Each structure stands twice: as C-alpha cells, then as structure tokens.
C-alpha cells in the first residue's frame, strides 16, 4: 500500500513539474503513524522582457565567503528602464527586479535579514492543524520533503518545486539614477507572478 501511494504521488509531481521533479517521496517515509500527506507542486517557465545577450556572459568572481572565491559564468546587461533597483535600509539589502513576460518578475536580494523557515508545526505544544482534522495538538508535522529545480539563463527562467511559499517583500523606494547590481556573493531570490511569490530560494553554492 505504501509503495502504491508513493508511486501515485511521485507520478503526479513529475507530471505537474514537466518531469523536472522526480522521486519526491520514498515509500519508507510512510508508516502506520502517517495520517495526512500534503503535496504541492508548481512549474514555471518565462522569458525575460529584456533578454541578456549571450556575448555579455563572462567568467567572474563569486565570493562564497570572505576566504572562498570561485569563478562562475555571470550574465550581464546595461542599465535599463525595465530593471528596478532599490535599497532597503530596514533589511540592509539591495534588491533587483527583472521583469518576465506575463506579469511576472524575478527579484534578487543582496543580502537581507529575511529568514526562511517554519517551526511551530513541528511542536507538540504549538502545532495547530485543526483546520485539516481533529483538535489542536492531534496532528503535527514530523517531516517535510522538498525538491526544487531552477534554471536561469540569458533567455529566461525555468523553475519547478514540490512546495509553495509566500513571503511579503517590504516596500522600498526606487532609485532614479542608474546603479550597478552585482550578484557576486550569496543572495536570496524570488519568482513573483501578479504580486504573489511562487518560488523562493537562496544561492550559496553557484554552479561552475
């Protein structure tokens, strides 16, 4: 029964994410204590409104830490009215918004005090999943499984995930004079569609 349930879940996730996310859950994760399995998957593919020219992609330094530096392929483009750069004093961060066709955009955050995480649903004392079943304390989460895929290229963005995440972005004023935005150290990024954040992640280990 557990094997069949895992196969059903994995097949659905694979279909929804255009074969980008495979084997999300293993049958051994399901046992006699399992009551509910919540599965959420998304797939997004969009093209930049202003594409990056492949000839501008160059090897550049990425500072994983103060003492660890690697060379990565970095896309580049000249300042444009399509790009929004703003500075948040509250978060001590610099943000870049890159528009995508279809009322979407990608935001990059260098670096902020934002923290990604959920804790209460794992606690016997604090977990309240009565909206699903039972009373407060009857159910709690003991494990979260997540697989993600994102490909950012000169043409656009392709992303898939087996979870959903919504995080508000604080308001910050747009700067009118051209500014440089150089993503040469760890940063947080978001994919936003119609003011809803559908994908969030953190880049600390760039592909090189």
From TrEMBL:
Q: Note the InterPro entries from the entry.
A: Serpin_CS, Serpin_dom, Serpin_fam, Serpin_sf, Serpin_sf_1, Serpin_sf_2
Q: Which UniProt keywords apply?
A: Protease inhibitor, Serine protease inhibitor
Q: Mind telling me what this protein is named? A: Serpin domain-containing protein
Organism, scientific name:
Tenebrio molitor (Yellow mealworm beetle)
One Pfam family named in its UniProt record: Serpin
Q: Carries keyword Protein biosynthesis?
A: no
The Serpin domain extends over 1-206
Instruction: Respond yes or no to whether keyword Acetylation is given for this record.
Output: no
Q: Which family does it belong to?
A: Belongs to the serpin family.
Q: Name one GO cellular component term.
A: extracellular space
Cite the GO molecular-function annotations of the record.
serine-type endopeptidase inhibitor activity
């Amino acid at each position: 029964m557990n094997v069949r349930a895992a196969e059903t879940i994995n097949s659905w996730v694979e279909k929804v994410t255009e074969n980008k996310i495979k084997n999300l859950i293993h049958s051994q994760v399901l046992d006699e204590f399992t009551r509910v399995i919540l599965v959420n998957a998304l797939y997004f593919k969009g093209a930049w409104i202003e594409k990056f020219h492949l000839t501008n992609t160059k090897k550049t330094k990425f500072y994983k830490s103060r003492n660890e530096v690697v060379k990565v392929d970095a896309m580049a483009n000249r300042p444009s009215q399509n790009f929004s750069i703003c500075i948040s004093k509250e978060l001590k961060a610099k943000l870049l918004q890159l528009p995508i066709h279809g009322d979407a955009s990608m935001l990059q955050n260098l670096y902020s005090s934002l923290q990604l995480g959920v804790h209460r649903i794992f606690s016997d004392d604090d977990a309240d999943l009565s909206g699903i079943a039972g009373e407060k304390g009857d159910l709690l989460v003991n494990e979260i499984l997540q697989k993600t895929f994102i490909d950012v290229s000169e043409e656009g963005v392709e992303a898939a995930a087996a979870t959903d995440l919504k995080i508000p972005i604080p308001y910050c004023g747009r700067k009118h004079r051209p500014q440089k935005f150089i993503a040469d150290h760890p940063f947080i990024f978001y994919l936003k569609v119609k003011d809803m954040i559908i994908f969030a992640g953190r880049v600390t280990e760039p592909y090189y």
